[in-house]
Design goal:
transmembrane, 74 residues, mainly alpha, membrane, transmembrane helix
């Protein structure tokens, strides 16, 4: 059985994306709860969570575009 370093890298990238998305969702939910309780930090949580989720989506789209270009070259 051979060990592929690219598989390790893609697994780490997947884990990081899942953790980032989970944190983004957590911040959004906690921020909304704080907004409902009328605390000023709620908006910071919502904005921070939205930015984290936006970063994950942008990274996924960039990677998908790179894979598509690579497929077209091959």
């Amino acid at each position: 059985m051979t060990h592929n370093r690219a598989d390790d890298t893609s697994l780490v990238a997947l884990v990081l994306r899942v953790v980032s998305a989970g944190l983004g969702i957590l911040f959004v939910v906690a921020g909304v709860a704080d907004v409902v309780r009328r605390t000023p930090w709620g908006f910071v949580g919502v904005i921070g969570g939205a930015l984290i989720l936006l970063g994950v989506v942008i990274e996924l789209r960039r990677e998908r575009r790179e894979r598509r270009v690579q497929r077209l070259r091959d």
